[in-house]
Write a structure and sequence with these properties.
The chain is 33% helix and 22% strand. The chain has 12 helices and 19 strands. The structure holds flavin-adenine dinucleotide.
């Protein structure tokens, strides 16, 4: 008899399993349909012995000390600050777009003029969403806003989502603002790193407990009638749980193409974005993230594509009002069974969560809904 049946061995499922097992001394069964733990943060060594993030590059970053401390119980860290370049007009410029990007793109005197205008208007250190910068109505800042929108945001967003950028919620472009500074770091959170030895090793430590059992290669539905349990924690897609009774929630998917080169490094930094050229959006060199030393290197090229259920992975919920309305219908269904089933995680909450956000969500569900604090 298990106290909890947890569907999914990603962050949401494993954090809750760990809390329930260690803090409440209750028994947990995690059922995972893939052949591995870790959810989308899973990593593995490829045939060349290079550590790969199977579902896309993952960098842990947070401003919340308690989350950094919590996850640090299960891993040591490779200290890592992510640097991203965008390939624009044949030059590689720092992203998020900042004062250094301006210096690389424009002749010196014009660049200095643009920098002075930006600092004068917004102040050094400001972070400005591109849609705010576009409120400029005339002059050189208007030129700059249009240049950045056209060359940095438009093509990338259109490729990423497969629709015109104005059809996507403004919060998407706001995630990567323009920085009025010379700080090239992609994330500026206080705590950042990559687990030493990888995410999968970290997950193994997290769920290594006598109260936790794990069943891989199994859909949770296949065990419902076979294994007795009290409550469910569900971290899979919420529409699937309710048999798509209100229709399918749309997602954007990705295809990764891996390429190994006989060179120590190929890219100038962790990731290079291609906003305007090619069908791919970005290339990532894993060794730059993980700090691994190896004579060869493996690069992942990332191609966005439509999500087709059963054929590829549901990666990004598509942020549009009609999808939020559809999700709300499922959320109401979930509320009806809240006493016996908890819905947690990016698929169950139909929300893009960073890793620290999904850990925070799981810890809150544990404290409020499970412990009743
Ligand atoms: C390309 C990409 C890059 C990212 N990079 C970063 C980054 O750099 N930094 C960051 O903080 N975050 C990043 N993220 C976000 C990160 O991946 C998520 O925060 C995290 O994976 C969410 O964990 P989860 O447990 O909610 O979901 P998941 O990791 O998806 O876990 C859910 C699990 O449930 C399983 N499941 C589903 N249905 C069933 C079923 N019926 N039966 C059994 N099992 C089932 C799935 O197989 C999956 O393993 C990135 C996301 C993407 C897509």
């Amino acid at each position: 008899m298990f106290d909890y049946l947890i569907t999914g061995a990603g962050f949401a499922g494993c954090v809750l399993a760990e809390r329930i097992a260690t803090q409440l001394d209750k028994r947990v069964l995690i059922v995972e349909k893939r052949n591995h733990i870790g959810g989308n943060a899973y990593d593995y060594y490829d045939e060349n012995g290079i550590l790969i993030h199977k579902y896309g590059p993952h960098i842990f970053h947070t401003n919340a000390r308690r989350l950094w401390d919590y996850i640090g119980n299960f891993t040591r860290w490779e200290m890592y600050q992510h640097n991203v370049a965008a390939s624009i007009e044949g030059k590689e410029i720092p992203l998020p777009f900042n004062l250094n990007s301006i210096s690389k793109l424009f002749p010196q005197r014009f660049a200095e003029k643009l920098e002075d205008l930006l600092i004068g208007q917004y102040g050094y250190g400001a972070k400005i969403p591109i849609l705010t910068l576009q409120n400029q109505t005339s002059g050189d800042l208007k030129f700059l806003a249009d240049f950045i929108y056209k060359n940095v945001f438009y093509g990338y967003t259109a490729k990423q989502w497969g629709v015109e950028p104005d059809q996507i919620d403004a919060s998407v472009t706001a995630r990567v603002p323009v920085f009025v500074s010379r700080d090239n770091r992609y994330f500026q959170d206080e705590w950042q790193g990559i687990p030493s030895g990888g995410y999968t090793r970290m997950f193994e430590r997290m769920i290594n407990h006598r109260n936790i059992q794990i069943l891989l290669n199994a859909d949770y539905r296949s065990v419902l009638e076979l294994i007795p349990f009290n409550k469910i924690i569900y971290t899979g897609p919420i529409d699937a749980y309710f048999d798509y009774m209100h229709g399918e929630l749309p997602y954007r998917s990705l295809r990764f193409e891996l390429e190994t080169a006989e060179a120590e490094y190929v890219l100038p930094c962790g990731t290079v974005n291609y906003p305007n050229d090619y069908a791919l959006t970005r290339r990532t060199e894993f060794k730059r993230l993980t700090g691994q030393k190896h004579a060869k290197t493996t690069i992942a090229a990332e191609y966005p594509e439509p999500y087709r259920r059963g054929e590829n992975e549901p990666y990004y919920p598509i942020p549009q009002p009609k999808n939020a309305e559809l999700y709300r219908k499922y959320e109401l269904e979930a509320e009806k069974i809240a006493g016996s089933t908890h819905f947690v995680g990016r698929l169950a909450n139909y929300r893009y969560y960073n890793m620290d956000q999904v850990i925070a969500k799981a810890l809150t569900v544990f404290e409020k809904d499970i412990c009743g604090k």
